[in-house]
Amino acid sequence: MQREETIGAKLWASLVWLMVGLFVLNLVGLVATVVVNSFGTRWFATWLPAGFTPRWYAMAWNEFQLPAILLVTMEVVGAVVLLSGLIGVPAAYAMARRDFPGKKAAMLLFLLPLLVPPITYGIPMATVLYQLHLAGTLSGVILANLVPTVPFVILIMIPFVEQIDPRIEAAARVFGASTLQLFTRVLVPLLTPGILAALLLVLVRTIAMFELTFLTAGPDSQTLVVALYYSVFAAGVRPGQSIDAMAVVYMIATMVWLLIALRFVNPTQIVTRAKK
Amino acid sequence: MTIASRDFRELRLEEISRDFGVLIALSKISLTVQRGEFIALLGPSGCGKSTALNCLAGLLPLTGGAIWLDEKRIDTLGPEGRGFGMVFQNYALFPHMSVRRNIGFGLQMQKRPRAEIAKRVEEALALVRLTGQGDKLPGQISGGQQQRVAIARAIVVEPPLVLMDEPLSNLDAKLRLEMRSEIRRIHGLLGCSTIYVTHDQDEALSLADRIVVLRDGQVRQIGAPETLYMRPASADVAEFMGYRNIIAAQASGNAAGLSVALAGGSLLGTAVDGAAGPVTVAIRPEDLTPSPDGPIAAEVITAEYRGRDFYGVARADDGTELYFRAFERVGPGARLRLAAPAERVLIYRADARR
Amino acid sequence: MSDRIGVRLRLARRGMDGLTLLVLPAVLFILALFVYPFLYGLFLSFHPMKGGTFANYIRFFSDPFLYETIGTTLWLAVPVTILNVVLSIPVAMRVRLLRRQKLLTTILVVPITLGTVLVAEGLLNYLGPRGWFNRVLMAAGIIDHPLMLLHNYWGVFLSLVITGFPFTFLLTLSYVTGIDPSLEQAGAMLGARARARFRHILLPLLTPGLTITLALSFVQAFSVFPSAVLLGAPAGPTRVISIAAYQAAYEQYDYSMASAIAMIMAAVQVLIVVALLVAKGIAYRGPASGGKG
Predict the structure, then answer these.
(1) What is the number of other CB atoms lying within 10 angstroms of the CB of residue C282?
(2) Which domains are assigned to chain B?
(3) Interface size between B and C, measured as CB pairs under 8 A
(4) Which residues of C touch B (CB under 8 A)?
(5) pLDDT (tens digit, 9 = 90+) per residue, A34-55?
(6) pLDDT digit string (tens) for B200-224?
(7) Alpha carbon separation from A128 to B266, C31, C44, C166, C249 (Å, rounded)
(8) Which residues have C-beta within 8 Å of that of residue B253, sequence separation ≥ 6?
(9) In chain A, where the domains are located
(10) How far is CA C250 from CA A179, A210, C223, C241, in A?
């Protein structure tokens, strides 16, 4: 489409880009301020801190149980990724390949946990988990986190399965593949990019999932983001720089996986889920 | 009938060019279109014909050259300022508007009085034989009907020029023939100048007053359909126009009578731009037929029945494969002698090819 | 024996074979941990710690400290949602013409991924009286005194823009790019200028998508929690409804009341979303492409 060259059109375009620029600038500013502060010795009424030091990282590591929190985070994230893959991928396969009574209802069932915000359903869910004596434990946190991730995997995977021509499976059958061979030799290799993308996104989402973990975690089952919340909440107890050191660790943990995930998916997919 | 085409004398393309970075999609195309003419831009995919159409429409800016409508330079205008009609390959009907509102959209944009819009839309509907379908949404009518709406929408604004981008490529074979004569009929009624992009030589031959053959972004030949069919200007145009036998050969003689040695025999031919020496020979399969004393001896590989005649492939004694036509059944392995009339054996300079 | 085969055949004919059973674990899981807790919460909300069946709801709607949280949350969520959607339309219109969209979309997906807690921590530094934001404005001579943007309405508002705008924008962009570009070209060929093309072609085709974007963005903003605590004034102007629910559950250990508040929160969201969908019902629904191709 040839763009219009009138002054009004140009002005309007500049205005829009200016807005985007300001937004990105502020975004970079708020991230940079955390990073700079985490390395600063003293930062008071100046553009930059008085000096730079890595000691806040050492402090966060040694005094604020960062290793333990990271271990919990890894356990939770690992279990959630594995389980949501195991439950979600087969379900997505069935949803994509079969028409069964109640399929619409099942679809709605999988959409709801993604549409209803976690804080809304998190409180009744935490109540149930407390009654089962699961809240406050690692298993409770994992179960809670699976609620949005299982449907997420299903909705991401359905289009991936649908784009595989069913005749390929028929061909494999005709040439004598058993069900197991069909899965291991044909479907899994074809679905690998989709599975990888879905699980990486689950990974990123679970590291960053605050509400559900917050509502169900006990002192020994806090993930990084919840620990970060508590230290920001109780600001003053710890030096601000050490909180920011923790925030930087959290950012790196999230961003690394996000960048890997973005090799396989389009950024818009993170928001639009199953929309293709 | 009040729908007509706006009056103008001619549309001139002066060396129009378009490149996409290093890729040159169109290179110095010049063409003059007279009022009422039907021009087909013909070429294989990637030849630049759609780029040419989009440049003409204003959907793509030119990177060189100029477009004139009589004394007015129009390549500096956007698509909305040129007033051309366009029929898109996928029709591009507005899915949220009724057929009637789709057709009336251009008039609505010109801020015509409502009564006039209603009247002209009704005429356009009648013209494309869709009276009574005006209130349906595009999604509720068939592909052929959508095509008719797209045409009606383009012509109702009475454009000086209608652009058509492979409009029949989404239709099945039967509907394609039907719509082809429909386009012919509407063009005859309105006399609107039309530029029609296609990769289908039958379509171009049957519709156009003149055909422009494009290849690699350059004009290879401009001419009447008969000229292109009978006397292509170069061997690659010949190949595209259905001359399936394109054979390197050696020519001897002079301009009055050239004979070429090919496939183990010797044929008299017509020089298009060739002379004695190495040449490229082009022969249509239907012109190469069995004859008891034909100069080329060959053995049939396959032959298939095409209704009246048989078309087949034969291997000459020197190994050259030849496409030929036979009037009675020949089986694989049969020995034949093939001949072609001298005026249908076209001789081109060997280096002119590609 | 033959009976069993018969049942299997009949089920298979309706699409219920071994393969379909693969969907069962996921369905059971969501039923157990999403649907059941929700229903249980609904049940629990009608069994208050003291008082009659509706005591929780009566208490909520008679105590201004509680019922005002709805207004407070709406006062944050509605303007933020409208701002985000209104801003995202022109930006998406521009970005769709860009050939290299991925860099911008990657930058914008960052705040969504980092989440509200980190954005809150960042804004605490960035928007503070000595933070870069105020510093730049003061150095540029736009303001004399630092703007008070933390621990009040604006802190939460800005954090909702930072995390909400990218979400809204990416959603809008996916709808905008879903419209067949040849439709706009057809409009231009018929003489429609940019503004007319937007009004007559793009906007009507976008309306269903924008409604969904509005609904999803609103629901996100309405459930604001950590940033309302960290950046706002959780005892006053930004005491949103999720804070009330959280306090009931984790500070007063009144799960019944907490469930009631969660149900009210869900009800308000559903109400607004349904209202939006009803309004959308008037608009065109169907594919945003120009033909069968």
Answers:
(1) 8
(2) 10-230 (3.40.50.300), 235-349 (2.40.50.140)
(3) 99
(4) 180, 182-183, 185-193, 196, 200-201, 204-205, 284, 286-293
(5) 999 999 888 777 888 888 888 8
(6) 888 888 889 999 988 888 888 899 9
(7) 96, 13, 10, 34, 12
(8) B259, B276
(9) 1-53, 55-275
(10) 50, 16, 17, 14
- Please, what is the end-to-end C-alpha distance for chain A in angstroms? 24
Q: Which of B12, B7, B152 is nearest to B87 (CA)?
A: B152
Instruction: Give the list of residues 6+ apart from residue A100 with CB closer than 8 angstroms, or none.
Output: C14, C15, C16, C20, C23
Q: How far apart are CA A213 and CA A225, in angstroms?
A: 9
* pLDDT per position as a tens digit, C196-234: 999 999 999 998 889 889 998 999 899 999 999 999 988
The pLDDT of residue B39 = 92
How many residues are recorded in chain C? Answer: 293
User: Which CATH number fits the domain C37-285, given the four candidates 3.40.605.10, 3.40.50.300, 3.90.420.10, 1.10.3720.10?
Assistant: 1.10.3720.10
> Chain B residues with CB inside 8 Å of C182's CB?
88-90, 92
Residue C155, min C-alpha distance to chain A (Å): 13
Tell me the pLDDT band of C256, cut-offs 50, 70 and 90.
Answer: very high
* Per-residue pLDDT reduced to its tens digit, C53-93: 889 999 999 998 899 999 999 999 999 999 999 999 999 98
| Sequence-ordered alpha helix ranges (H) in chain C | 2-13, 24-30, 36-45, 55-62, 64-95, 102-126, 132-139, 153-177, 181-189, 194-197, 203-222, 226-230, 241-250, 255-280
pTM (2 d.p.): 0.83
Cα of A175 vs its chain's centroid, Å: 41
pLDDT at A271: 61
> Which amino acid would we find at residue C142?
I
Contacts of C139 (CB under 8 A, 6+ apart): none
Alpha carbons C128 and C148: distance in angstroms, whole number: 8
Contacts of B78 in chain A (CB under 8 A): 2, 4-5
Q: How many CA atoms lie within 13 A of B88 on its CB side?
A: 24
CATH hierarchy code of domain A55-275: 1.10.3720.10
Pairing of the two strands B296-305 and B335-339: antiparallel
Q: Work out the average pLDDT over A213-237.
A: 88
How many Cα atoms within 13 Å fall on the side-chain side of residue C63? 12
Other CB atoms within 10 A of residue B252 CB: 14
Tokens coding B219: 């004009």
Q: Confidence class of residue B172 from pLDDT cuts 50, 70 and 90?
A: confident
Residue C197 DSSP one-character state = H
Look at residue B354 in the predicted model and tell me its pLDDT.
44
d(CA C278, CA A229): 39
Of C20, C38, C115, the CB nearest to A100: C20
> What is the C-alpha separation between B342 and B296, in angstroms, rounded?
14
- Delimit the domains of chain C by residue range: 37-285
Instruction: In whole angstroms, give the CA distance from residue B64 to residue A67.
Output: 65
Q: Which two tokens stand for residue C140?
A: 């540029």
C225 within 8 A of C250, measured Cβ to Cβ: no
A93-A99-A104 Cα angle (round to 5): 90
Question: Are B59 and A2 inside 8 Å of each other by CB?
Answer: yes
C45 and C256 in contact (C-beta within 8 Å)? Answer: yes
Would you call B92 an interface residue with chain A, using a CB distance cutoff of 8 Å?
Answer: no
Phi, psi of B296 (to 5 degrees): -110, 125
CA distance A35 to A251: 10
| Residue A24 touches partner C, C-beta closer than 8 Å | yes
Chains contacting C with at least 3 CB pairs below 8 Å? A, B
- C21 to each of A97, A105, B181, how far by Cα in Å? 12, 15, 55
Place of tokens 């995977």: A157
Longest dimension (CA), chain B: 75
Length reported for chain A:
276
